[in-house]
Every structure is written in structure tokens, then in C-alpha cells.
Amino acid sequence: MTVLAGPLALSLERLLFFVGFAVALLVGWLVGRRQRVAVEPVLTRMLLLGLVSARLAFVLPYLENYWRRPFSIIDIRDGGFLYEAGVIVAVAVGAFAWRQQTMRKPLGAALAAGLLTWSIAAGSLGLMQAVQPKLADLPLTDLTGEPADLDQLAGKPTVVNLWATWCPPCRAEMPVFAEAQQRESGVNFVFINQGEHAATVTSYLEEVNLDISNVLLDFRSASMVQLGSQALPTTFFFDRHGVLVDTHLGALSSASLKQRLKRFQTGD
Questions:
Q1: Which of 1, 32, 79, 236 has the fewest CB atoms within 10 Å, i.e. the most exposed one?
Q2: Domain boundaries, the chain
């Protein structure tokens, strides 16, 4: 699920994380103020060092993919993080601060409040997402105007990408998906164009010389509503039973797609 804030789009999961962090900052400030202890710098260091460590731990195994475009290492929009590494570093930073007796009460209260807020919000989100969308219910057509039969995708993990030719991040990640479709024979890749005519889509694919299959049309953008997306591009990962197991808002890099496919297939 996504949340729109003006021109910006943020996945609800990430928004809930930052809400939990904001609560931690507030509680830490309130408790620390009574004891004249500033806990906010510790919390900020835990967050920043944790995120940097999680990013570096992800990039290193996929350095070959990032080496072609070094600046993409700092483009965190691809969602490439190894969160376990980030948690370890954040805990280490918190443990170092915990040695100060005066820091323990405000830091403990802040972390407890933040984790509780995030846990409750994430649990509520999980209940909201309990009703699983079904691919076969999407009203789609192929490039010739014939109704698309998505039942034929059953039995394999399926990656569904919502995109449009006018969307720069969509255009940026299309070569990544084209390469993956050629490489990953055990995975279905479906590209559902939003709101455009067949001639527009065909012309674009020919213009950029993209050789991809399973390009479908959703002229009314009904799939965005049914799958809970409010921004493009959004990618959905369904297991071989048709159950939605992962979602990504924004462009995927070659490395982040490889990671998600690996985790996706291993989990299936």
C-alpha cells in the first residue's frame, strides 16, 4: 500500500517505521527533559548508522551490479537494504550509550514506545491486507485487444509490474526487467500498462528496442485500485499459489530485483 503526500509517494510500511521513530524521539525527549538528558542524538545516530550499514551490507554482495553506475549506490529508492546488519549496528550504538546510567531510562522508554507503536501499526496493516488480491480478477487485455487470461500463470512465482510510458522511473527499470525475464525462466513477469492505448505502448517498446513478453493493458487503471497502488512504478511479487508476498514502490535496480527474486524463490 502507498501513501501520497503531494508529488511524493511513500510505501505505508516505510511510513509506519518513521512514525515509530518519531514517537521514540518524542518520548525520549519528554523523559530525558525531566532528567536533563538529551537522548535524541543517540536515537538519530542509531537510525542513520543503522541505515548506512544496512545499505552497505546490501551493496557489497551486488557490487558488480552497482559498479556500472557508482552513483546508484546512494540511490536508496531501489529499496536495497540488508536490515539485519542495520539492526546489529543500531543495537551496538544503543548499547554503547546504555553504559551511561542517566541515559538508560529515557533511552529505554524511547525504544519501548517506538517499537510498540511500530508493532501495533504493522499488525493493523497486516490485518488490513489479509484479503489477498487475485490476478485472475484483473480486467486486462493484450496488445491486440484480446482479453488476457492470467490463469495460465498458475504454478509459477509471478512478478507483476504496473507502469506507463510517461513515467521516468518506469522507463529506467524496464531494461532491468527485460534482462531478468530472459534470465529467470522459472518466474512469470507481467507488465501491466496503466491508462495508455496499445499503439502508444507498442511504439515505445519499438523505440527503445525492448524485447519483453506479457505486456498487458489496463486502460482504466483498475489494477492499481485492486492491488492497492497509488503511484508508479509499483511491483508485486506473487508466489506460485497466487499469494501476494512482497511489494515494492519505485524503480528497482538490477541488484535489488535479484535480491527480491532470490528471497522470493527461496521463501516459496
A1: 1
A2: 2-128, 135-267
